[in-house]
Amino acid sequence: MRFLAHRLLLFAAALFGVSVLVFVALRILPGDVAAVMAGTAATPDRIAALRVQFGLDRPLVVQYFDWVGGLLRGDLGTSALTGRAVIAQVGQRAAITFPLIVMSLAVALLIGLPLGCASVLARGRRMRGFLHVLAIVGGAVPALWSGLLLILLFSRGIGLIGLFPSQGFPSEGWHDFGRALASLVLPAVATGVVAGASITRYTRAAVGDVADGGAVDMAMACGMTRTQAVLRVGLRLATPQLVSVAGLTFAQMITGVMVVESLFALPGLGALLIGDVGNRDLIAVQSELFLLAAFFLALGLAIDLIHRALDPRLKATNANGDE
């Protein structure tokens, strides 16, 4: 409980720091926020109306606490561009982005875990070298390039094998589950292949360290083959490290997916944020940036707690430290 309380306090302090940073960053932009939102051709009356509409005429401290109070109530403000609640827009776009990230992570794990274990189990020097080079080359390929290659190979209309759509998302959303899922396959593979190369390297390092230890040797002494010992014992002992790697990869995919969304014309969070920045909808951008930062922090907290739950050595270390 002491560990959990400590982590939650750090999480709350980090959220507070992020909120202040995002708020101040948009207020120190050159010129008035209302003037930036209104555009260069706006009249003084239009700028004054925007300043009153969004409370920009009040002191900065009052603006900050009004914004934070809205966040605590689930009110992220109203978009100056569309007039819709920001929370509704984010929820609609997140229903595309987060399933895409989950699918990309699944592809990355399906590629990275088997190849990483194969690198450890490979007996021939040439095979180990081939898998090592494959991981390096896969990690060096930009997601944008792999996406273009997948479009040329597997997209309907222009691809050699027309299997999946290459542009857009069904207007019915996930109500048309088959089309919605098919529209995310190519972008998920494009992102997952790149992330899978990184997971391959981490898996090879983590499982390789365990395989060189005594646990695998003891399992082999009990009658297991080396392959069985590495997969049943070594992989299980390396699981805490791999969970951390998978969580960090999930967080990194948020930025990577934004590029792929533009390539495949998916109306996700990346398109929303880029559009709001381009249209100078700074009030919406403020809440969207905070939500992304809060998600990164929450994911880090979850990884920390899961890692501790899976690795009893951390509990023992902390217990000895407390004593």
UniProtKB/TrEMBL annotation:
- GO terms for CC? plasma membrane
Q: Name one GO molecular function term.
A: dipeptide transmembrane transporter activity
Q: Supply the Gene3D superfamilies for this chain.
A: MetI-like
Q: Where is the ABC transmembrane type-1 domain?
A: 94-307
**Family to which the UniProt record says this protein belongs:** Belongs to the binding-protein-dependent transport system permease family.
Q: What is this protein called?
A: ABC transporter permease subunit
Which UniProt keywords are listed?
Cell membrane, Membrane, Transmembrane, Transmembrane helix, Transport
What is the annotated localization of this protein? Answer: Cell membrane
In which organism is this protein found? Bifidobacterium avesanii
Its placement in the membrane is given as: Multi-pass membrane protein
User: Membrane-crossing residues?
Assistant: 100-121, 133-157, 177-197, 242-269, 289-306
Tell me where it mainly resides.
membrane
PROSITE patterns noted in UniProt? ABC_TM1
